[in-house]
Amino acid sequence: MNVYKFELKRLKKSILVWGLSVPGFLLFYLAFFPAMTSSGDAFSDLMQSMDPKFLAAFGIIPELPIGEILGYFNLTIGLILVPLAIQASNYGFHILSVEERELTADFLFTKPISRTKIIVSKFLSALTSLIIVDLILTAFTVIALTAFKGDEVVELKNVLILLLSVPFFQLTFMSIGMVISVSVKKVSSVLSYSMALAFGTYVVSSFGSILSSDAIKYITPFSHFDSAYVLINGHWHWGLIWISFTIMIVSLIASYFLYLKRNIASL
Amino acid sequence: MNIIFRELKSNLKSFIIWILSLSALFYVASFEFEMFQGDSNITEAFDSFGFLFDALGGVPDMTTAVGFLSLVSIYIYVPLCIYSALLGSRIISKEEKNRTAEYLFALPVSRKKVISSKLAVAIFYTVLIATISMIVSWYSFGMYSHEPVSFDAFIINLGIGVLLTQMIFLSIGMLLSSALKNYKKSGGITVGFVIGTFMISMLVGLAEKAEVMKYITPFQYFPAAAMMEGNFELVFILITIGIVIVSFGGLYFFYSKRDLHI
């Protein structure tokens, strides 16, 4: 419990920064929606008549026109997922490597607690932080959608189903981060790793959707947790999401066993 | 000179990793683009609705190499800017992080000289990564371009635009890591700045009302759409030069009297 509490305290500032900036960005984005609705009725009629594959390249989905709040929200959440992925990979790369980097491993591992307990506490504290941020995000989303929808009728059920997938999306990135951080000899800079992981997969998924490529969809979590699919169909994209879940479970198990056996650098 | 060689060597590994993964990304994208280019549906849509896209203010014809590259250009800008921002913040703060500051500053070289050498290396790698990325994009997308002359001109303009944007982030990264008291924070804040301005830039593209905000996001200073016509706006060039000079000046100013963490 002590390790858990200490880790949570260590992450306090980070929770505060992420928990305010990411939902704040969402609010900021959605605040521009009312100004957009006036133009574009004739335009969206024309959009209906075009080839969906062509429109997809511009991020336009006929079922979710950008002139309606859910269509606009779909674009917004697609971007909001980027910082969320960075946060999760930051934690993933950070929690198991920080003791070695800051030379506190000697202190921690001479305490009468097992490595199992340490890794579980660290994992749970990071998970708690992610969930806190997700809860704030959910609250902000509901508030923003209600405030800016104008006179549209919005079905919040699909939005909530989508937001429910966000913790799992983050957990995927965190577990990949954890397994990489215990596999390499030393994580010298958490940020370079987490930016490469989070932004790299984002860029790959953007290319995938611009090119409407099916092959690319399988390799990046951003496509597995495709927001448009959930908003249209009202359930997760199980055909792809299982890949992320498998990666997550395998990574978590692997990082547990690798961490137990890890040769931890000390002073 | 010794410090320059030393810095070149210690930043080489991350440079190679970045350039290899970026090149692979551009190359695979161009590969996928080839199939996409032949798609008759899209060409037809452009034939029949081309006037509409022109009216909308320049949605590029994405079946050509120039149009496609400008459509995805933000994914050339952002990774390169992340690289430069991280490089700038790391090259300054790494002495304190690796606990080598004590060693370095006990040597008979002035702080100014150390900073100048680090600055030279950072600029060198920034120019190099921009150049190589442009050559890779030129090679991989150029195969599918039917108008080689305008494509070459576009790549050169795009390269200059990317480089100028990178310089902004490089200088800010270096400034922050010399000005902030805690050396650990600079990387995070710099990257937060890159991602924040990236998201604002996407908003500018999305909502017309956000147009005024293009002054606060460097990604809108030299957008690919303007690079297609070689259209560098004077005001943005001046802003860029201003930011870079102020940041580099601040770097020398703050680092000379920095209380190093040992």
Q: Unreliable runs of chain A, pLDDT <50, ≥5 residues?
A: none
Largest binding interface between chains = A-B, 38 and 41 residues
Contiguous runs where pLDDT drops below 50 for at least 5 residues of chain B = none
The number of domains of chain A: 1
Describe it for me?
The complex is a heterodimer of chains A (267) and B (262). Chain A has 267 residues and is mainly α. Chain A has 15 helices and no strands. In chain A, 76% of the residues lie in helices and 0% in strands. Chain A is elongated. Chain A has one domain. In chain A, helix 10 (156-183) runs antiparallel to helix 14. Chain A starts with a helix and ends in a 6-residue tail after the last helix. By secondary structure, chain B is an all-alpha fold. Chain B has eleven helices and no strands. Chain B has helices spanning 2-10, 12-37, 40-55, 65-71, 74-97, 101-106, 111-142, 148-179, 185-206, 224-228, 234-256. The two termini of chain B are 25 Å apart. The A-B interface holds A 21, 25, 28-29, 32-33, 35-36, 46, 50-51, 53-54, 57-58, 66, 75, 79, 82-83, 86, 188-189, 191-192, 195-196, 199-200, 203-204, 206-207, 210-213, 216 and B 14, 21, 25, 28-29, 32-33, 35-36, 39, 41-42, 44-45, 49, 52, 59, 62, 71-72, 75, 78-79, 82, 86, 90, 97, 187-188, 191-192, 195-196, 199, 202-203, 206-210.
Task: Write the SSE topology.
The complex is a heterodimer of chains A (267) and B (262).
Chain A: H1 2-10, H2 12-30, H3 33-36, H4 41-48, H5 52-56, H6 69-95, H7 98-101, H8 105-109, H9 115-148, H10 156-183, H11 190-210, H12 214-217, H13 221-224, H14 227-233, H15 238-261
Helix pairs in contact in A: 1-9, 2-6, 2-9, 6-9, 6-10, 6-11, 9-10, 10-14, 10-15
Chain B: H1 2-10, H2 12-37, H3 40-55, H4 65-71, H5 74-97, H6 101-106, H7 111-142, H8 148-179, H9 185-206, H10 224-228, H11 234-256
Helix pairs in contact in B: 1-7, 2-7, 5-7, 5-8, 5-9, 7-8, 8-9, 8-11
